[in-house]
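Bumping with the actual sequence this time:
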Amino acid sequence: MSLVMPLLVRRLRNDLQELEDDFGLSAEPIPDNIMLPLCIPLHVSNVPAYSGPDVAVNDHSFSLIIGEDYPYERPKVKWSSPIFHPNIMAPSEGGVVCVMDMDHWSADSTLSTLVRSLIDLLKHPNPHDPLRSSTCEEAAEWFLNKM
């Protein structure tokens, strides 16, 4: 199931306005004739995390990939800035983000809902269930020893 294009464009514009209102995030304007999938690059600041063991970072870049079934299907997330996290793969390993905490997606969810979950994941990594990559497994071990 998918929204007709004018409704999808309006929904995305509203979601992007909410992102700006909630987080100060801005993205390129959505044209009337979008092509899907649509990649929306975003950057969040002032969120503590790590880019390596004991290397703190506060700025993060990622993209939300909007598919044809948005808003009925959650956007995909691709990480693009350096990260050392058990639940977020480094860009060199694919930039995959564990979305288990975001499984409660519904058509009423918004991009702000997703970004809020990403920020929460950055602040509260789950080292007990890392993604299967060497960096994520190394980060899980480091976080377990640090806690």
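The tokens above came from a reply further down the thread. The first strand starts at residue 38 and ends at 44.
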